[in-house]
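Archive entry. Fields below.
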Amino acid sequence: MLILECPYCGIHAEETELHAGGQAHIKRETVGADDAAFEAYLFTRANPRGVHLERWRHVNGCGKWFHAARSTTTLEVFGTYPAQTLTPPDDIRAAITAKHPDWSFEGWQGAT
Amino acid sequence: MSTRLSTGGRLLDKTKQVTFQFNGRRLRGLQGDTLASALLANDQMLMGRSFKYHRPRGVVASGAEEPNGLVNLGRGGTFEPNARVTTTELFDGLTAESQNHWPSLDFDVGVLNNYASRFMPAGFYYKTFMAPAPAWKHLFEPLIRRAAGLGKAPKDRDADRYEHFYAFVDVLVIGGGIAGLQGARAAGQAGAKVMLVEQTAHWGGRAPVDGVEIDGQPADAWVKNTLQQLENMDNVTIRSRTMGAGVYDHGYALAYERLTDHAPAQDIPRHRLWRIRAGQIITATGAIERPLAFAGNDIPGVMLASAVRDYAVNFAVSPGDRTVVVTNNDDAYRTAITLKQAGLEIPVILDARPNGGGALADQARALGVRVENGKAIASVKGGKRVTAVDICAQAGEGSVLETIDCDAVAMSGGWSPVVHLWSHCGGKLLWDEGEAHFRPNPDAAPKGAQGQDFVITAGIASGAMDSAAVLADATQAGKTAAVRMGHIAPDMAAPKADAEEPAPLLPVWKMPQGAGYKLRSKMWLDFQNDVKVSDVQLAAQEGYESVEHTKRYTTIGMATDQGKLSNINGLAILADSLNEAIPAVGTTTFRPPYTPISMGSIGGDASGDLFQPVNQTPLHQWGSDNGAYWEPVGHWRRAYCYQRDGETVEQAVHREVLATRNSLGLLDASTLGKIIVKGPDAGKFLDMMYTNMMSNLKQGKCRYGLMCTENGFLTDDGVVARIDEDTWLCHTTTGGAARIHAHMEEWLQTEWWDWKVYTVNATEQYGQIAVVGPNARAVLEKLGGMDVSKEALGFMEWKEGQIGGFDARVFRISFSGELSFEIAVPASQTRAFWDALHAAGAEFDATAYGTEALHILRAEKGFIMIGDETDGTIIPQDLGLHWALSKKKDDYLGKRAQQRIHMTDPDRWQLVGLETTDGSTLPDGAYAVAEGVNANGQRNTQGRVTSTYHSPTLGKGIAMGLVWNGPERMGEVINFPMLDGTSKTAKIVSPVFYDPEGKKQNV
Amino acid sequence: MSNAVSALQGVSSAGFATVTEAGLRGMITLRGDHNAASLRQAVTDIVGVDMPEVRRCTRAGERAAAWMSPDELLIMVPYADAPDVVARLSAALEGMHGLAVNMSDARAVFMVEGTAEGSAREVLAKLAPVDMSRAAFTQGMFRRTRLAQAAVAFGAVGDDAFELICFRSEAQYVFDLLSMSAKSGSQVGVF
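PREDICTED_STRUCTURE:
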């Protein structure tokens, strides 16, 4: 059972305090978008083997949404950061590339 | 025979007799016995029957690895099947029954399977019951279900209670043998917060049984001293009868504490499941002895050599008077020496190694025991009990050299470290050629949240094979764990114990080496599931090359013991059959729990009244006192209706509907969600959340709104009130408050975080009461306070003020078509307000109504209900709610999705009313059929019922439904087949059945 | 008003720890930027307590301010004072983006206190995934979490005394959970 540190309240919360919200950094498509772009926004999600950027909510806690950079294979957590950002902050990128030198946000399957 | 010895019994209190029952017989044991040792002391070697062939089974081990000795324990509310006799502590009044036999343990009909065993090899079921298909359902499956399964399922509700406990430690040490004790001591002295758990009631593990000396003292004394030291450390917690059950991601571990299994009378939780978060976990889980595979090795009386020794030393019980020892390693000689010193006979020690054993063998010989090197058991004789063994050369094909009378056999195939907890979370294994076992690979440990190693093995669980090595390894493990948690390693030397130099072990996977089929088909690998050497060989021959496939095909290792005894031997046979090295074949996956834990402990507090939280409104008690017939709505309990003396539920509902239509109804609407949305951007935000426009709602006004998800489907509805310039109050459905609040917060926090909007879920701050019916205004005027006249408070308006002295917000909205006021008062005063309404309303026959009357009232008016007319696939357009879709707005959640091709398809079913031609009521969910059949040969459909009621107001059945092209087909009659083969016909009508002009609500 | 009643009307139970419903409490949800001077000033001037740090609750007599999230505080005052405090807070926040709502009736408050028989910490450690050891959970701390399946918040008001807040509708569930966990004989003996 995972532990993630909520970047807002600093609690190292176990999974039962959290709610998983799927892939992070999805760009909203709406009126005006073509069918393909809208379908991708609604239904297509990355499922990388390795580094992933995810949304979590500290639901049994401060109630805030945050993002986590995590390995889907080893469950190593590279860091968590507030959800109010379009891209992962530099310290998170550095923590990831320290372990996975070839990784880049731009090359991540979920990047749009 | 097995019997109690006059010497030994280090775990017994011989002054305290205990009585218990086995299969209805009253027996005696001693305080400190396990059920296994007490049964053996009463010469009850036969304890059960095997799973497939119903062969007689006696106890083979002395601990958690026991595959055979399983019993039904207790009665009624404390009944439990598949209890292991070896881990069941004896107590006064214990009752046990053996399993898997009929009519009795001694005479069992199922044993016929045994005589047919050559027709029931591995995969028998798969091969035999393939065809014809109907035979499976009607013949084979019922037969197999009756025959299969160990034990019985409990029939009564569990009388015990259970609990969890959350613990947080630096270092969790699993296993209370000398390795665990020493590891905990080292980590504890470093200052780490340590928890040490041991699955049995006793500390020290095998060391005291094996006569180990530590730092010049007998192991028992060292254990006692070390425990004392640990107890004196404030930073160390120790728990016996607590099994490390599983190791999970990020340092999470479960430990299973058995509080009352050994003393059931206490009124405390039976089991406590510890949910531990540990920085480091030391697994000092010991090792398990391997059986040897020889013909007849499953006959009661054949036991692990270490178990024989345990029974003698710990419980003063000898499994037999004449015990043949058979081994491939030095350790089993200890058993021979122990028994010999207790005055029992050892007719021979058969050592499969051509050159025999080392110092321990010399010691045995010096005691006058006959030792035969290079010899093996050709087969064991006996039925329900060993009577003799045929001996042969290990190297040959099993020609019998000699038959030796005996009543027990002590076997040892070497020791395998218990790697389960190491492996649960991904720790890898190495194959050790010398010891012929898998041991943890310290370079491939389970990884924690930071990518760090978080499990360390200690002692024989690491593969350290003598006490000196065990203690050195454990000391290091304790220090390493503490250092990893930021402490400084104590200057502590490992305690001293004698190193041993045993003669090397010889891997022996079958006995004799060249055994033919006849012998191999009598060599058991899995005692509980009846898997033999020949079965694994057959699986390999039939192409089951993967160990995981072989496991499932033969069922090896799938019994309640999860292959603790059988796995390595099975693997070795499979590897041999495939001509592969053992490590190339690999192991099956080790999954938690280590041994079965109770379902009750997993549930913890969540049983009975506490199974789930029940949300109660401020009027819950009134409902309970006034005949409320409760229904769950989300986690809320709402009154479906309030039954009066002698009324049926249906009668109560109809009375409530008519009272409301004719005079005055009162509804507890407290469960409706109430979310406050405030801020400079609140209007803009609500325009995104709702399909209709909320930003232009005037202060003091209310508007009904629809909410869709981003994929266009309706998710909630409710009335929105504008409170002031930048504040709105959004009502949600009963189940929707928390969900919609979370939905709003998600969009605010993750998409429009620059918008200035705050939300608060104020649902429970207010109780809300709907005052409904022609006399609604009259009762409020009687209570006095704010002006609720048509002029002062028009339809779809709200006002704040006082009614009857209560602070109130009054919303003039109607979900019934009647004159209606929904009144919110503080929750702590809701009961008083409700009572005041009833008192003032007595002259109007004020009638509390429940959710079913609410449903009928709204259905009579054609109002939709989220969850009835919607099911997660319905868009507003399906329900004729186009008027609620703002055309002025560029965007709202769901707008783009509602433009997708499937959403604009004219063939989507549309909401209509349905009126049966005979006045009866349609069943909920009924489908209307159309001409022809679909690709699967099923009748085509053209609609379905979404809500259906008998309307007491109209005296007939009314329904709402979704029908293909429905609104264009008014007056048409469609056909609904019933489950009993009949059918009902219904006319398509407007969904508004009552007061279509809305005269009643607008007064 | 005199006819206001708390969810369980002061019910209590005694085991190795005592569990008591504390009765009505004035509670105000205050949302706004914690760094805004006007909000900080309002907390100190109107509530009369220090602005709480993350995961803490500051108290002065019957008044308290608890950290709920980066933009939310829970203000506690005597029940009868709540409407007035809401009005004063709202006035103080005039001009900034903020929200003060009276939530006094939306919740129930319980006191869980240890006895000579056992520790209140153990009652909570049976139900919440929180380190309740003395070293980890100290006086003044305030934690939102779950108690079995209910959302709660609790704070340490003494060495072995806790104040726990839950939704009013779940008061019975929470009381039953706490009482069962505090039953005599089920002490764990680790704190």
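CURATOR_NOTE: Chain B has a mean pLDDT of 95.
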